Amino acid sequence: MLKLYETRSRQVLPIAGRGGALKIYCCGPTVYRDAHVGNLRTFLLSDLITRAAILTGLEVTLVQNITDVGHMADDLEDKILAQATTESLDPFVIARKYEDRFHLDLQRLNIAPANSYPRASDNINLMIAAIEKLIEKNFAYVAPDGNVYFDAQSFPSYGAISGNRLDALKPGHRYEYSEDGTKRFHADWALWKLARNRTEMIWQTPWGAGYPGWHIECSAMSLEFLGDQIDLHIGGIDLRFPHHENERAQSNALIGKEAVTHWIHGEHLLFEGRKMSKSAGNVLLVQDIIDKGLDPLSARLAFLENRYRSQMDLTWASLEAAHSTIKRWRTLVNSDLSTSMLAPDSEFIDAIMNDLDTPRALLRLRAIEKSGALTSAEKSAIFRSADQFLGLDLSRAPEKKSLSAEQSQLLELRRQARAAKDFAESDRLRGLLEESGLQIKDGPDGQSWD
Fold it and tell me: What letter does residue 10 receive in the DSSP assignment?
C-alpha cells in the first residue's frame, strides 16, 4: 500500500482510496507566464503519486485546475491582466498561449495528462453558486464596499494545515492581498471583488459586476468535478498557506464536513543554490534545458534523486549527470529485449511505496545495473518494469549520430598525435573535437568518443 506524508496530520499515512478508486485534485498553474522547473516539480509529484497508486491497483481520477482569472499580485493587479498589458494582447489570448505551453512542458517531462483541466473562467457560475451558499450559511458576508468576504472567524479549525492560528495572525501579515478596510476581521479574504475601474475579465453577479477571488475557484471546481470526498489534494508547499488553508475552510463550510482526506505538499526547488526568481535572473525553463542539448527528462531524473518533501538544489551539473545516466540506461534496456518485463523488483517497489523514497529506489536500480548475477536481458526487463513508475522513456533507443568527415579526420589526427606522444597537439585537437560536439575520453585502449 502506498504511504505518503500528510500535511494536516504531520504523519506518513496509508493511501487507500475508496472502493478501489482514488480521487486527486492538484492545484494547477496560473497561466500568465511559462512554468519554470520549480513549478513543474509539483506537477511531477501528482504524476508520481498517480503512477504509484496505479501500481497498487487503484483507479485514479486526477483533476487539475487552470487559473486564468483572479490570482492577484502584490500590487493588487491580476497577474494575467498585467501580462496582457506587457505583451499588448487580449488577456484570454495570454491565458490560452501559456496554457498551451504548460501542456507542452508536461509532455516534455512525460507527465501524464490529468483527466480534466477545468478553467476558472469557464466555471464562474460554480463560484457564484458557492458564494451564495456561503452567505446563506453565514460563512460569508457582503461588506460595505460591495465586496464579498469569507468570515474567517466562523471556521473554528482554521489553521489545521499550516499551523497558523487566527489569533496569531496580525494585521498586515501577508496572508491575503487586499486594499480595503471594510472587512470585519483582518484575516477575512475576498470571495468576490467588484470591478470598479476594471473593464476586462469581469462577470455579472447578484453583488454587481466583478471577478472572483483566487481561493474560491479551487473549492468550487474540486467539489464539482470530484464530489464531496476528495482523497488527495496536492500542491507546492507555498500553497499550504493561505491558499489551501482558505480553500479548506470554504469547502468544508459548503458541505458541512471534511472535504479532503489527505493534503500532500511538495517542497521548494532552488537552482544553483538560490531561489528562482525573475529579479535574480535565474528562472530555469524546460526549453532552457533543451537548448543546452540535454534531454528534458534529465530534469525528471534529477528530481527523482531527491525526496519530494525535501528542498532540493538543482544544478547544471546534476542535469548533465542525469542526461548521461538516462543515455546509459537506455543503452542497457535496448541491449537485450529478449525477456518480457519482469515483476517489479521488490526493493524498488518498497522504496516507492514508502512515501515515494525515490533516492533509495534509484540506488536499488544502480545496484541492479552493476550486478554480476543478472544477465543483460534480466536487467533490461527489470529497468523496463521500473520505468512504469520512473517515466524516463527508457525503452527509447539511444540516439545515434554519425561522425562528420571533419570529426573523423580530427579523431585520426589526434590518435596519431597521442601515438607520437605530442600531447600539446593532442590537447589542441581535443578542444576542436569538443567544440564540434563530441565528448572525448582517454583510456588504456586509446581514445573513445560520444
Answer: T
Q: Which three cell numbers stand for residue 26?
A: 492538484
Q: Which of 390, 401, 403, 402 is nearest to 333 (CA)?
A: 390
Q: Which amino acid is at 77?
A: E
Query: What CA–CA distance (Å, rounded) separates 25 from 73?
Result: 24
Q: Per DSSP, what are the bridge partners of residue 230? A: 260
Per the DSSP assignment, residues forming a β-bridge with 142 are 148
How many CB atoms lie under 10 A from the CB of residue 86?
A: 11
Q: Where are the alpha helices (DSSP H) in 267-345?
A: 286-291, 297-304, 316-335
Measured at the alpha carbon of residue 270, what is the angle toward residues 266 and 276, in degrees to the nearest 5?
Answer: 105
Q: What is the pTM of this model?
A: 0.88
Q: What's the CA angle centered on 432, arms 431 and 434, to 5 degrees?
A: 65
Q: Is the dihedral of CA 283, 287, 289, 295 positive or negative?
A: positive
Neighbours of 154 (CB within 10 A): 18
Dump pLDDT digits (tens) for 17-35.
999 999 999 999 999 999 9
Q: What count of other Cβ atoms lies within 10 Å of the Cβ of residue 206?
A: 11
User: Do β-strands 230-236 and 21-26 pair in parallel, antiparallel, or remain unpaired?
Assistant: parallel
Cell of 277: 526568481
